[in-house]
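Bench log, entry 3. Co-assembly request; chain sequences pasted below exactly as received.
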Amino acid sequence: MAITSHDPIPTSQLDGAVKDYSRDKVYVLTALFLGVLTVVEVLTYAFPDFPAWSGNLVIAVLMILMAIKFFTVVYIFMHLRFDKPILSWIFWAGLGLAAGVYFVVMCTFRIFWPGSHG
Amino acid sequence: MANAVQAHESVAQADAHAPHAHIDHDTNTGISNTKLGMWLFLASECLLFGGLITTYLLYKHPLEGPTPKEIFDIPFTSTSSFVLLMSSLTMVLAVSAIERGDHQRLRIWLGATALLGATFISGQIYEFTVFVREGLGFTTSRFSSAFYTLTGFHGVHVTVGIIMLMSLVLLSLRGKLPEHRSETVEIIGLYWHFVDVVWIFIFAVVYLIP
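Structure output for the full assembly:
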């Protein structure tokens, strides 16, 4: 029986590579994990006096949560973990360049100095 | 002739069902030029959004007009953020579906992604409308200009993504998106996920960090 591009290929004809598609479960679990992190982020706003993120600690907590979410999406959803290293290098080079350039810009404007806003 | 057609089908099937990251293309890097181009584009986008976010951070303390704390509706924006986050899941499931050759699910997941993206954009338009009613126009303060430019640019990126997703659905309906072209879906998926990670950053830095 000829298989056209529109027909799902019968399981009996699939090669071993299809096992990789148990990845769908990984994707769903990853999304749940990201959802939970988002809930924690919102809780920092709803309960600002909670000891784990009270005062200036909230900035560090939010930055860490944001970084975890960022790297999770990039590595798992964008497949960077499974892809060729050159793609990681390209992306991190762009991100690193942006981070470096704009850190210098913010220092130039003395954004990290107390009382220098406005 | 019949053998050649059969061989072509075998290659197409193997190509469609091989783990995507392991396909070697006939280029110096072993990566297709379009995929490499998309990653280079995303790297350059880091600089674009980095500039916009830095400008916002420099100007986030307004000298006049409403302050961020006065106007931001965090529960509403949190819901929008969650919607966009879930659209990344539907996008990656669409990529997975076409790699399996499941075209019906491909269209369902692509449609769901576009719908979630449209929901996010609707929320953003509603949010902007409320802000303008509360006296925060584009030129009200340097904070408002930086805020609207940053979130507006992101919104434009989401809108472009929705157009690309709908184009994929149309291509699939016309039978012009066979399994061996699954990389097209993956590349548009890369763009979509990038738009999502940018929002992860914006949500924390602009809305949540006091």
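Chain B has seven helices and no strands. The CA atoms of residues 57 and 104 of chain B lie 44 Å apart.
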